[in-house]
Amino acid sequence: MARKISFINYKGGVGKTSLIVNTAAALAKLGKKVLLFDFDTQSNASIWLMKLERWNKVNVDGTGAIYSIFEPGKAQVKDLIIKDVVEGKSGEKLLPGLDLVPTSFNLVDLESEYTGDPKRPPYLQFYEQVATIESNYDFILFDCPPNILRASQCGVFTSNEIYVPSNPDALSLIGFTLLVEKLHKFHQLSASFRKAAMGVPAQVQGVIFNSIKAGVDIEVPKMRMQLRLNQFRTAKRAAAAAKIFNTQIRDAMIVRRAVALGLPVALVSVEGADVGPGADNVINDYRKLASEIIQQNPAA
Ligand SMILES: Nc1ncnc2c1ncn2[C@@H]1O[C@H](COP(=O)(O)OP(=O)(O)OP(=O)(O)O)[C@@H](O)[C@H]1O
Ligand SMILES: [Mg+2]
User: Fold this and answer.
1) Fewer CB atoms inside 10 A, N or C side of the chain?
2) What CATH number does residue 60 fall under?
């Protein structure tokens, strides 16, 4: 069965989407079968991996986007999967093994206009749909917005593991603390829908530091994060094996450029674009992070 992982932090802009897209690409390059769900109505991951023109066709009426599974009788997750999503200029497949279920802006309706059967909350419907396809993948990843409203709940309820992208600053630490608190509340709220076969609710397995600038000492924020993580582990609000990942992702221009080019960083040079200084280094960071995630044992 696939390992199912949500990337989430209550702090916005810490690099959740950049981390998940580039780590998903690195996992696929290591030969893993990866499916990425975009659960953020901003659609950043979808626009990035599909490029704007292709994504616009999905956004026009929401056909093919994740929200369509929550409209009764409309769509099945298996019909929304875009196989080998990353394409080159002439439509050639650049990254076999990385699939995407995109979102469009209509996902916001899940938070406001949606009036489904309260006995079958969206996260339960979503869990059941993912169960039909998960045996096809090694990793299923969920890019969540910075909250635990209904869209994020789908990812969190379905996940076995939660990773927290963070910057080395006080606001990320606050975001992490809030996340753990809200996660606990959501697990209590959803407990009656969790059957034994689903396993235990996902806990935080790790914090991943992102956008680390050269020459900046992050020992103090790292120590504060470690102390908070230790407190949560002691209180059983984080997994016993939860850790700050050894791999941290450096700040590099190519990460920002890759979005505009519609490619994960590992493929930017394939398209012959100017990658700026440090590109190989940050590509290596994502590769190391992917290897560290492969080695992380969520059962420990
Ligand atoms: N390692 C990095 N080096 C340089 N820039 C980065 C890096 N990681 C992320 N960024 C930039 O930081 C900004 C925020 O990143 P991103 O959109 O991934 O954050 P997010 O946490 O997903 O945001 P949101 O909360 O809005 O979903 C983007 O402009 C992105 O290009
Ligand atoms: Mg994002």
Assistant:
1) C
2) 3.40.50.300
Running DSSP on this structure, what letter comes out for residue 11? S
Residues with CB under 6 A from ligand 1: 12-18, 40, 42, 44, 145-146, 210-211, 249, 251-252, 255-256, 259
Instruction: Tell whether 215 is covered by a domain.
Output: yes
Among positive and negative, which fits the CA dihedral 54, 55, 60, 61?
positive
Task: Please report whether residue 300 resides in a domain.
Answer: no
Give the Å distances, CA to CA, from 289 to 251, 282, 296: 15, 10, 10
How many domains does the chain contain in total? Answer: 1
**Of 8, 9, 17, best ligand 1 pocket probe by most atoms within 8 Å of the beta carbon:** 17
Asked, for residue 18, whether it belongs to a domain, the answer is: yes
Range of the domain at 214: 3-295
Straight-line distance from the first to the last Cα atom of the chain, in angstroms, rounded to the nearest whole number: 17
Ligand 1 atom having least distance to the Cα of 21? 18
- Is there a domain that residue 141 lies in? yes
The one-letter amino acid code at 97 reads G
Which tokens belong to 142?
A: 């969920």
Mean pLDDT of the chain: 93
